[in-house]
Structure formats: C-alpha cells, structure tokens
Write a structure and sequence with these properties.
The chain is 1% helix and 47% strand. The protein is an all-beta fold. It folds into four domains: 109 residues, Immunoglobulin-like, CATH 2.60.40; 116 residues, CalX-beta domain (Immunoglobulin-like), CATH 2.60.40; 104 residues, Immunoglobulin-like; 373 residues, Methylamine Dehydrogenase, Chain H. Strands 13-22-20-15-18 form a five-stranded mixed β-sheet, with no helix packed on it. The longest helix has 9 residues.
C-alpha cells in the first residue's frame, strides 16, 4: 500500500519500466553577508566543485513558510551514468550567497559523519566563514569647518569581528564639492591625504582615520569630500558596501543664534515645580543644530533649591525651539528669591548666547505684594464671559464689570472687609427697560465722580450709553445711547472713556475713527451732547493711531492719550474756564513717541494709562515694549520722561504684553497686568525726594502661583478707594474677576534684611 502511494506521487504507475530516484539531501539555515542578514531576494546557490555546475538555487523570501531561512534540496543519484545537475553522497560542492563563496562541503557529510541520502544538514552561511578575515566598513560623518586654523575630524573604520591578526587598510581622500590640498590656503577646504595605511591591531575591532579641515569666514554652501578604502594588506579583510565615507563640511559662517530668555518660577510649598527655559533659534537651519547645557548655582543651591540638570539638545532641521526643564524644590517656610543659571557649550551650527541666562525662584509667600482672596467667574455667572472692564464705585459698596462677548454690564455687591463680590445682576438689551440700550461689544465703563451715572463704550454699536445708578442698591437703569451718525462723528468703535474731574465732559477715544471725541455732560441727568471730534487728519495728531487709553489730570487741565499703533503719548490742554463757551475744549500740545523710530523708551504699543493722585506722574503700560514707563508732569501739564521698567531686566518679572495700569489711591503702589504672561506686577512708588514718582519692582503674581489658574489673559484692573484691594479682569480661561488683597501695609515678612 505504501509503495503504491509513493508510485502514484511520483507519477510512475502504469509504466513498463520505472526508476525511483533517491531522496535529496537538504541544506538549510540562515544566510548573511559579513554578519548582516541577507535581504529578501538574495540568492543562495549550490554548485559542484570545481566544475561549477548548478545543482540548486533558492531565492530568500520566496517561500513564506521559511521566512528568512534558505533551503537547498540537492538532487542525488546512485546509478551510472550520472545525471546532469545531480550529485552523489560525498561529492564536493560550494554554496554561494549572492555570488560569494559562503561554504565548501561534501554532500551528505556533516563534520566527518556520512549522513547519506534523504537527510538534512543545518548550515548557516556567510562568506566570512571562508577565512576572508573580518568585514571592514567606514562611517560617514560631518564637521563644522570653523572660522580659522585647522579643525580635526575623525573617521571611524570598523570590523565586524575582533581582529585575530593585524588588519592593514590602504586609504586616501578624494575631492567632492570640497577641495583638498597638501596645506590650507585660499580655496582649500581640507588637507589632502594620499597613499595612507591604517592598521587595526590584533584584538581590536575599530580604528580611526584623523583628518584636518581648513577654517574660513567665507559664507558658502555646505561642501563634502570622501575617504575611500582602497585595499587590504595581504588580502586579510573584506570591504563591505560601506567602503567610502562622505565627510560633510558644515559652513558655520551663516548659522542661527540661540536665544534663551530668563525665567521666573514659583517655588512650591510641597513637591516640585518646573523652571522651563525655551531655547529658540533666530531662524531655521539647513542642518540639525545642537548644544550642551547645564545648571550652575547662584544664590540658589543645587539639591536644596533645585535639581542639578544638564543635557545635550538637538533641534532638528526646520524646527526652531526646544524646552530645557529644571525641577525646583519646595520649601516648607517662605524664603527670599533665589536664582541659578544655565551655561551652554559644544555648539554645532549655531551661535550660543553671550549673556547669562537666569532662573529666579520666587516664593509667592515671601514678602507678597498682593494675596488672592477669591474670584467670580464665567462658570458661575455666564454673562461674565471674557470680561473687558472692572470698576469700583466711589462709595465702595459695589463693583461693575463689562463683557464684550455677552454685550453685558454686570453689577456686584462688594464686601468692604473681604473685598468679595456677590449678588451679580446682569444688564443686557433683553433686561427690562434696556431694549433701546446699545451695549454691543462693551469695552469700557466709567462712573461719574458722584457715583450717579455709569458710561459705557459699546464698541460694536459705535455708541456711548448712559446708565443711571441707584446709590442705595447699585442697580442701573437705562438713560440714553448716543451713536455714530448724523451730527455725531468720530465715534466708530469707541474703546476707552474718561470723565473730567468737574463732571462736565466725557471724552472718548475710538479705534476705527482714530479719534478723540468730546461730549458735554448734564450733571443732573447724566445725558451727553456731542461737541467735536479730533482725528488723525488734524495737525500734530498723526500719531493718534489706534488709541488705547485716556486719562484726565486731577486738576482737569490736561487730557493724556496713548496710541498703540502710533507708539505715542499725546498731551492735550483742556479749557477749564466754566464760563467760557469753549469750556472743556481740547487742543493738542505735543506727542511723545517711542518704538524703533521714537526717542522715548516704554511707548512701543502704548496702551494702558493712569495718573498719580497728586497729578505729578503719568504711567503707561506698553504692550510691545513689555514695559511700564513714567513721565514727570510739570505744573503746566507738560511731560518729561521719568523712567521705564521692562520685562527681562534683572529681578523684574511680569509685564509680558503689558496691558492695564492703575495707581493705588494712596499713591504708594502701581499695578500692571501682563496679558501675554498672565501676570499682575506690583511696583513701589517713591512718594518724596528727588525720585518722587519713580517705580521699583516689588513682586509679581502669575497664573499657576499657589495652584491658582484664574489669572488668565489679565487686562483691565481697578483699585478700591480704601486701598485694600485690587480687582483684575481676566478674559481667558474661566473668565474671572480676581480679587487681590494689597499687602503693602502688612510687615509680617519684613525683618530689615531683605535682598535689594
């Protein structure tokens, strides 16, 4: 039965004469070329030795069941005459991998043992098994050429196995786009080497070819040359496909600069916080750039205040930044500011920072300027979404906020002891009695000095709206809206308001009209009557581009206006003679300008503005300059530059995108919001002496300090008349009015030994 089945399989049944061929001898195993597995498609062949007659061929990967193994079934015969393409047990054969001899064996014989027909032999193949010596490869590399002299570059030559005898390798350099010569000179990029020999010693597996590159200051494209392995000494060793190395010369005469800004990080009371330095390239580069960085102690001590950190950073081609993070350690008790630095070294294709890069560890609990007491948010009060303005009533009983996105004005009860806001009431066109009110895109609100009327700048309605205020409960009622059109001009996109101290005029600056509009005000009814509009087309008003803030001096003699696009602070004289028909009329005196073409610091992107209670200084928050500047005011109202404090100055924090500024009613402090870095910065103000009005940085609070996340995109702010609280409108995140208690009169943290 078995014989019948075999005959059927061979297709020999029914034949008068049948010959049963002996079973094959099978070789199988892995195939590699000098230690590297062969790829799919590689050929493995068995041929007679020495005739070279093909016995069997296999293509690696052709049988999915075998994977990367090969299989050679050598056909055998035992009867003369010998069939072509067949072998007999004991015949010598050679097995080739991709045409290279990888084994010499006798068919059916394994390590002297005759296994015979119908058997298998595991035979892993590699040409290196034939005693060729190790496979030799050389690695390409790159080098920054340098600006002068010689720059060394090492090229690594590797063996795939430890040398059992010395391996001698002939090599030379060859020009590519780079040009070589015997010595460096104009137009020479590297020192040429010819007829060289590298010897890798017995027991080693690697050698180094040392070359020299010529530095220069010529801005040129990146270039390259090559090192070619020519032959081996005595034929010991085999070159793989990696027998030529390319050395890329990276031109360092037109590389980006690395910029790393100082950082401020809040010290946690428990656990750790992260000081994140952002390393930024001045531009992208055609190659990856890299550098090494490490921390260095200043007043902060490694292991006590921060964790020692370092690293090697590569910024890939086309990218421009990387984060460098350092962990800051907690302190159970409040401690003064401490600092540490970053150092930089080993630049590749970039210029390192020359100025020190510093992290200041700030403990918000130590000598605070303000302390967060609470907040009301848009999550609690939907109509508080993205607040744009906040004010406190003169009697301190109420606070009012505005929401541009909800077209709403909100009233709050205010607790004089805690500063807390509660019992919100929202006023919109859907509110009873407000159907005719124009409240679209509210940007600013102001109360009259007597607290009787509230004025609203409705930006998207091109209108100013008047609301009457009930002094007892703070509730509001609609009086009138005056809007652009007809006899009223210059009122496109009203942005900020100011009332004269005598209550006779309301002044409005507008964004689209780039105008300063004057209204006369009826004290009894609060109603407004349009008088005139001053715009950029008038003489000496060309800098009135995108006005951002307006304030009237306490004596009513001047009006001061900031212009964001004009990078300017404009002074207007005001007619203060009540009996004069032109009472309240403004005339432009001058314009102080900043920015690249200006002469005054701290006015680029001039935005928020306030004046000291004594009328002696005007303070400006400049968004583009990230600064607060001050101007001394003479008796005639003229201004002269007093000073400026900018983000990034030593021991100064906050002011990123400086937005709003307010002088405390007692004149002791000035507060500035940083819209871009989510900060509220507090400055001490000199009250006497030659430095009267000058500011000195005290402290800044940031979003994230002490776990608070409410100070998000802070803008407008207000100080309570009792000098106890500051209120900040934060339009991002939770849309909050954040309440801060002023700590200026509390001496708990002052012991006489404060750091300067």
């Amino acid at each position: 039965m078995v014989l019948t089945s075999l005959l059927l399989w061979l297709g020999l049944t029914g034949m008068a004469k049948a010959t049963i061929e002996p079973p094959d001898h099978v070789y199988y195993g892995n195939a590699s070329l000098y230690g590297i597995p062969v790829p799919t498609g590689a050929t493995v062949e068995a041929r007679t030795n020495p005739e070279g007659v093909l016995l069997r061929r296999y293509t690696v990967g052709s049988n999915s069941l075998l994977g990367n193994y090969y299989k050679l079934a050598i056909p055998l015969d035992t009867i003369d005459p010998r069939k072509p393409g067949h072998a007999r047990v004991g015949d010598p054969i050679r097995i080739f991998v991709n045409g290279l001899v990888a084994a010499e064996v006798s068919v059916g014989v394994d390590q002297g043992e005759v296994k015979g027909m119908g058997t298998t032999t595991r035979l892993d193949l590699d040409p290196q098994n034939m005693g060729t010596g190790p496979a030799i490869s050389i690695a390409s590399t790159q080098v920054v050429e340098g600006d002068s002299g010689l720059t060394a570059v090492n090229v690594t030559v590797s063996l795939n196995a430890v040398a059992t005898q010395p391996v001698g390798i002939k090599w030379e350099t060859r020009n590519g786009t780079a040009t070589g010569a015997a010595t460096c000179a104009n137009g020479v990029d590297f020192v040429q080497k010819l007829n060289q020999t590298l010897t890798i010693s017995t027991g080693a597996q690697q050698g180094t070819i040392s070359l020299q590159v010529c530095g220069d200051t010529v801005v040129e494209p990146d270039e390259d040359f090559s090192v070619v392995l020519l032959s081996t000494v005595g034929g010991y060793g085999v070159f793989t496909v990696d027998s030529t190395a390319t050395i890329a010369l990276i031109d360092d005469d037109n590389v980006p600069s690395l910029r790393v800004a100082d950082v401020r990080v809040a010290r946690p009371s428990a656990g750790t916080s992260t000081a994140r330095f952002v390393a930024v390239l001045s531009r992208t580069h055609d190659h990856p750039v890299s550098f090494h960085w490490a921390t260095q102690s200043g007043t902060a001590v490694a292991g006590v205040d921060y964790v020692t950190s370092s690293g090697d950073v590569t910024i890939p081609t086309g990218e421009t930044s990387a984060n460098l993070d350092v962990s800051v350690l907690a302190s159970a008790t409040p401690v003064p500011n401490k600092n540490f630095r970053l150092t930089f070294s080993a630049p590749v294709s970039l210029v390192l920072p020359t100025a020190p890069v510093t992290a200041t560890i700030v403990d918000p609990r130590y000598d605070p300027a303000v302390q967060e007491e609470g907040a009301v948010t848009g999550n609690q009060i939907p109509d508080l979404s993205q607040p744009t303005a906040i004010i406190v009533s003169p009697d301190g009983h109420h606070a009012y906020a505005a929401s541009a996105s909800k077209n709403a004005v909100l009233r709050f009860d205010r607790d004089a002891l805690t500063g807390a806001l509660s019992n919100a009431v929202s006023y919109k066109t859907s509110s009873a009695g407000f159907d005719q009110a124009k409240l679209g895109g509210v940007q600013d609100i102001k109360l009259s000095a007597d607290g009787g009327f509230l004025y609203v700048a409705a930006m998207s309605d091109n209108a100013v709206t008047v609301l009457a205020r009930n002094a007892a409960d703070g509730n509001l009622s609609f009086v009138e809206s005056v809007a652009q059109g007809g006899a009223i001009s210059g009122l496109k996109k009203p942005f900020r308001l100011a009332l004269s101290p005598d209550g006779s005029q309301v002044y409005v600056v507008t964004q689209e009209s780039n105008s300063l509009v004057r209204f006369n005000r009826a004290a009894a009814t609060g109603q407004l009557s349009f008088v005139e509009s001053l715009d950029q087309s008038l003489q000496n008003l060309s800098s009135l581009g995108s006005p951002g803030g307006i304030v009237v001096s306490p004596d009513g003699a001047q009006v001061y206006v900031t212009a964001r696009m004009g990078n300017a602070l404009l002074t207007f004289d005001r007619n203060t003679t009540a009996a004069d028909p032109n009472f309240g009329k403004l005339s432009v005196r001058n314009s102080l300008t900043g920015g690249p073409a200006g002469i005054v610091l701290g006015l680029q992107g001039a935005f928020g503005i306030d004046i000291s209670p004594d009328g002696k200084q005007v303070y400006v928050a400049a968004q583009a300059d990230n600064a607060v500047s001050w101007f001394d005011r003479a008796n005639d109202g003229s201004l002269s530059f007093g000073g400026v404090i900018q983000k990034g100055q030593i021991n100064v924090h906050g002011l990123g995108g400086a937005h709003g500024v307010v002088v405390a009613p007692n004149g002791k402090e000035v507060f500035v919001t940083g819209f871009n870095d989510d900060s509220l910065a507090a400055f001490n103000r000199a009250l006497t002496g030659a430095q009267q009005g000058d500011l000195s940085f005290h402290k800044a609070v940031f979003k994230g300090d002490n776990g608070s996340v409410l100070l998000d995109d802070p803008g407008a702010l207000a100080a309570s008349a009792d000098d106890k609280f500051v209120y900040v409108a934060a339009s991002g995140g939770s849309s909050a009015i954040v309440v801060y208690r002023r700590m200026s009169d509390i001496d708990l943290f002052k012991d006489g030994f404060e750091e300067p």
